[in-house]
Amino acid sequence: MESFNRLNDLYFKKLLGDKKRKNLTLSFLNGILNKDDENYFTDITFLDKDNEPLTLDGKLSKLDIRADLNDGTQVDIEVQVCPFKFMAERSLYYWSKMYSEQLEKGAEYKKLKKAIAINLLAFDYLEDEQEWHNIYNLLNVKSHNKLTDHIEIHFLELPKFTLKDMRKIRASEAWLAYFSGKYSKEELEEIAMTTPAIKEAVEFEDTFLQDKIERRAYE
Q1: Which of 18, 99, 177, 204 lies deepest, with the highest CB count within 10 Å?
Q2: Are strands 74-80 and 115-121 parallel, antiparallel or unpaired?
């Protein structure tokens, strides 16, 4: 299926939002977050993706993938295919709910854990940025010193992504190459030699497309 969209909501959640394939989700997260062998995330627990509004007329949050990592880090992965000019505001809103909902009434603030929002975009969003991966923290506007490491918001813009050297590919680049749809199955097989999770993703994709029920739901 030449026009298969790997960012399709149904497929993306099947691929990276299912505990049966949490090794793929961990590969994606560890790659994007640039984790090495010493601080590599080793486990993930998927959580309810529908955050109930705080008031009767509040806005319901529909998260694509919401999870806890083994060190308590909270993570939200969002995919946006159509251009949306309020991605920053939406991401901050989702991040704030993810962060605030960690504590029950009377709990101590020291129990709060880092919260990370990752936005995978099929369009150019950050006009003043040339790189495909941009990370935002809370900084002092003069000294640029970081106030806390508890907030981290990532934007991954697929149109800006180009694989420079297939022989020296990082896990983050391998995953972006996969989701970009710019590379053939043969090229992905070559990429899979350095990132085995990509081979598993391609194999799952083939199984998904051969399943008539899943294919119909995707279409």
Answers
A1: 177
A2: parallel
Instruction: Examine residue 1 and state whether it is found in any structural domain, yes or no.
Output: no
Rounded Cα–Cα distance for residues 147 and 213 (Å) = 49
The 3-class SS string of 50-88 reads: EECCCCCCCCCEECCEEEEECCCCEEEEEEECCCCCCHH
In contact, 138 and 168? CB cutoff 8 Å: no
Q: Cβ distance 112 to 148 under 8 Å?
A: no
Give the residue numbers spanning the domain of 147. 9-218
Domain total for the chain?
Answer: 1
Question: DSSP character for 37?
Answer: T
pLDDT tens-digit profile of 32-60? 999 987 788 999 998 865 444 444 344 43
Q: How far is CA 49 from CA 13, 29, 45, 52, in A?
A: 11, 17, 12, 10
pTM to 2 decimal places: 0.89
